[in-house]
Amino acid sequence: MTDPEQPEQPEQPGRSGSPAPSPAPHRVRVTSPRVHAGRPRAHSVTSEIDAQTELGAVYIRSLVRSQLRLAGLVLALLAVVVGGLPLLFVLVPAVRETRLLGVPLPWVLLGAVVYPVLVGLGWFYVRQAERHERAFAELVDS
User: How far apart are CA 114 and CA 121, in angstroms?
Assistant: First the structure.
């Protein structure tokens, strides 16, 4: 029996006759000797644009080209709508002669139809231009 005042001592190998358990293997972490070596940096698109390299010029040209295509589209739509009205008045004389609530139809078309079309084209242009710029910014940031 053991004395309650004395703490129990762990069994030591060899005393009880059982073999001692082998200690758990230690883990070893293998690392490169160049842990703190610098890694080659990839050039960001922003630095290419800032440095005015050929690659940066390609990115800028693509943005300018997409904005120019958009401006050409809006200008063509404007030319068809606004430029087509005088052509309509010349080719269809009945439109010139028609009155709407006592006001000649050409005045109604020029005063009430053209302005909403201009506002709509302006809204379309701004929305699409911002979309092109967001796509370009995402491309540059990635």
Answer: 10
Task: Give the integer Cα–Cα distance in Å for 45 and 51.
Answer: 10
User: pLDDT at position 125, please?
Assistant: 96
Record the tokens describing residue 86, joined without a space: 């005088």
Find the radius of gyration of the CA atoms of the chain. Answer: 41
pTM for this entry = 0.59
The three-state (H, E, C) secondary structure of 72-128, written as one string: HHHHHHHHHHHHHHHHHHHHCHHHHHCEECCEEHHHHHHHHHHHHHHHHHHHHHHHH
Q: Please, are residues 95 and 106 in contact by the beta-carbon 8 Å criterion?
A: yes
